[in-house]
Structures are given as C-alpha cells and as structure tokens.
Amino acid sequence: MEQTDIELEVEEARKDAITALRVGVAPPFTGNIAAVALLVRMMLREELPYPEEVGSRIYVLSFEGPVPYVKVGSSADCEKRISDHELAARNHCYSLVDGWISKPLGSAREVITREKRLITDLHITLYGYVCSRPSEYFHRADFCKIVSQVTRSGISGMPLPGPATS
User: Fold this and answer.
1) Tally of domains within the chain
2) Which of 26, 35, 43, 58 could hold 102 in an S-S bridge, CB 3.0 to 4.6 Å?
3) Cα(96)–Cα(39) distance, rounded to whole angstroms?
4) Is pLDDT of 58 > 90?
C-alpha cells in the first residue's frame, strides 16, 4: 500500500523529532516533537480496535529521548493512562513517538496476568534472561519488534506498525 503525501510528511517529521530528541537538541514539547506526540495520540484514538467494547487492553508505547525506551502496560482507560505516561516522560525530556493498543482482552485481573506473562516472555526474547521482578520498560528496544512479539503471543489489536524509524 502506497503512503500518501501527508503520511510521508508525518513520517519525516517523526524521524526529525527522534533525531532531535536522541541528541538532546530540543525539549520534547516544541515544534515537530510536540506535533508527532499529538499525531500519535490522534492515531491511537482513531485506530482503537473495537472502541465500543469495554475491558482492559494491553498497550505498547515508544518514547524517544536520551535513552529511548518502549513501555508495555495495560489499562481499561488507555487514553488516560497513555496521557499520564506522556506527561511523566515529558518531565524527563522524552516524547511519545509511536504506540499500539490491543482489542479489549477481559477484566483487569485477567489482563494483568496476561501482561505479566507477556513482559516475562519479552525479557527472555530481548535479553535472554528474566530477573526476579521484570520491568515493563524496555530501554533501547525496537518498538516494532516488541509489537510483533505481542501479536505473535495471540494478542490482536491495531494494525502492525511499519519498519522501525531508527
């Protein structure tokens, strides 16, 4: 599928923002960087799978800054939770640059259990080991690779992202 001119401009802005954030040239709330974060939030809202259904979902967020990271989590109110993560990240000179959300997966308890298993599996795949309390933060990890593994584990949601931007 060919990208439109607008999609190409957004992707170019995302690459510029990521470069600026990685080298510490700009704070995460100015220019293209703020625009990319806004576009990501809009995309997550517009492409949310089964928006009319209730239940907790798993989300994967990519943040750029001095040490890029991917956050894996779950919530019944993903929009609020993502907003909370974005605010905290901005306070530490990071910005949201990509995201993915699953379809509703069940009750909070069911999804938290699934999330913990998923995080353990991601640690084994990415790092080759799991510590006693694996973190939901994956520093210097590839967002597309993590989303791909999430979907391979049987969790469906938004369309898979394109190639990594780094």
Assistant:
1) 1
2) 58
3) 10
4) yes
DSSP strand pairing (69-75 vs 57-64): antiparallel
Q: Quick check: 93 and 24 in contact, CB under 8 A?
A: yes
Amino acid (1-letter code) at residue 27: P
In a domain, 145, yes or no: yes
Strand-pairing partners, residue 71, are 61, 137
Closest C-alpha among 66, 88, 72, 74 to residue 123? 72
Token reading at 63: 């943040």
Residue 64, domain extent: 5-152
**CA–CA distance, 76 with 57 (Å, rounded to integer):** 6
The verdict on residue 162 lying in a domain is: no
The per-residue pLDDT of the chain, averaged, comes to 86
From the list 89, 97, 71, the residue with the least C-alpha distance to 161 is 97
